[in-house]
Amino acid sequence: MLPYTILLFIIFLFVSIHSTEIFMVKYRYLEEVKTRYEREAIELLAVKRIITEDFKPKGTMVLNDTKVQYEQMNLDKEKVALSISLKKDKKNFTPIEVVYNRTNQEIVSWK
């Protein structure tokens, strides 16, 4: 009788540990998706704000606890390149490059 009890206990432990691992993987994935979504939303909001409100050559702003630093470089009299970098919770994200056409008021490229 005792070996069957130990065998059932081991099976129960295995299933419990496996279920916990599955939960943790899903949780990490959801956190990563959330971080990426928030970063993309901040990037879009920053570009919109820089283009519409704050078209200075250089600047810094804070959006939703994220520090946004940007720099404007004139490519020609119509096009402007914006270099934008984000920093949140001591984590630096990959900078983005946006080329904006002033006359058409549209984004030409986003890298």
Quick tags:
111 residues; 6 strands; 6-stranded antiparallel beta sheet; alpha+beta
Question: What is the secondary structure topology, with strand pairs?
Answer:
Elements: H1 2-52, E1 58-63, E2 66-74, E3 79-88, E4 91-92, E5 96-101, E6 106-110
Antiparallel strand pairs: 1-2, 2-3, 3-4, 3-5, 5-6
Can you tell me about this structure?
The chain is of the alpha+beta class. It has one domain (2-110). The protein contains one helix and six strands. The protein has one helix at residues 2-52; strands at residues 58-63, 66-74, 79-88, 91-92, 96-101, 106-110. Strands 1, 2, 3, 4, 5 and 6 form a six-stranded antiparallel sheet that branches. The N and C termini lie far apart (66 Å).
Helix/strand-derived category reads: alpha+beta
- Note the main sheet: 6 strands, antiparallel
According to DSSP, the number of beta strands is 6
Specify the overall morphology: rod-shaped
Low-confidence stretches are none
**Individual helix count:** 1
Q: Determine the fraction of residues in helical runs and give it as a percent range.
A: 40-55%
Spell the H/E element sequence: HEEEEEE
Proportion of residues in extended strands: 25-35%
Mean pLDDT: 88
Compute the separation of the termini in Å: 66 Å
Radius of gyration: 24 Å
Count of discrete domains = 1
